[in-house]
From TrEMBL:
<feature type="domain" description="ADF-H">
    <location>
        <begin position="32"/>
        <end position="168"/>
    </location>
</feature>
<dbReference type="GO" id="GO:0071933">
    <property type="term" value="F:Arp2/3 complex binding"/>
</dbReference>
<dbReference type="Pfam" id="PF00241">
    <property type="entry name" value="Cofilin_ADF"/>
</dbReference>
<dbReference type="InterPro" id="IPR011171">
    <property type="entry name" value="GMF"/>
</dbReference>
<dbReference type="GO" id="GO:0030479">
    <property type="term" value="C:actin cortical patch"/>
</dbReference>
<dbReference type="InterPro" id="IPR029006">
    <property type="entry name" value="ADF-H/Gelsolin-like_dom_sf"/>
</dbReference>
<protein>
    <recommendedName>
        <fullName>ADF-H domain-containing protein</fullName>
    </recommendedName>
</protein>
<feature type="region of interest" description="Disordered">
    <location>
        <begin position="1"/>
        <end position="25"/>
    </location>
</feature>
<dbReference type="GO" id="GO:0034316">
    <property type="term" value="P:negative regulation of Arp2/3 complex-mediated actin nucleation"/>
</dbReference>
<dbReference type="InterPro" id="IPR002108">
    <property type="entry name" value="ADF-H"/>
</dbReference>
<dbReference type="GO" id="GO:0003779">
    <property type="term" value="F:actin binding"/>
</dbReference>
<comment type="similarity">
    <text>Belongs to the actin-binding proteins ADF family. GMF subfamily.</text>
</comment>
<dbReference type="GO" id="GO:0071846">
    <property type="term" value="P:actin filament debranching"/>
</dbReference>
<feature type="compositionally biased region" description="Polar residues">
    <location>
        <begin position="1"/>
        <end position="11"/>
    </location>
</feature>
Amino acid sequence: MVSKALSSNGETLLPRWPRRLPKLTGDEQSEPIYQIPKTTKENVEDFKVQSAKFRGKPQAKIYIIDQKQRIIRAEDNEVYGSLEDLATELPESSPRFVFLHCPVTLRDGRKTERFVLVYWLPENCNPTQRMSYAAMVNDFKGTFNVGRVFEVENADGIRGIADRIAAY
């Protein structure tokens, strides 16, 4: 039997939950939590052009979410020329976005190069940072027309990323 809540004057009170939320139209949808400024967009485009010149060698650049400025930016101006260098440079407890231009050999023996986004997400990272990066990964992917995102949790995953890229 369901009991009804009554007000002091004996009227039936409506339940508070479940509350129906208004549907958002395209004009009312919220902005992303973090912005991708024009400088970051130009930086990524420059990286794409420059990395294409180094055929046969992997090229990687690390991007971070700047919590204070609420933007995504390059961590520094360093471009990593090997997966080993990249694996040693990534922090053990903080997530990162890494653009990677990587030569791969396909199953049929053909050589090609792929431009992918690596979502560095170590197991022991701060939950707040984890959520910040998770909220932005699709926006970051869409802004730069990246075909594939690879989530990597440790340095061994970075070292073996070329095999995963070749498989897709």
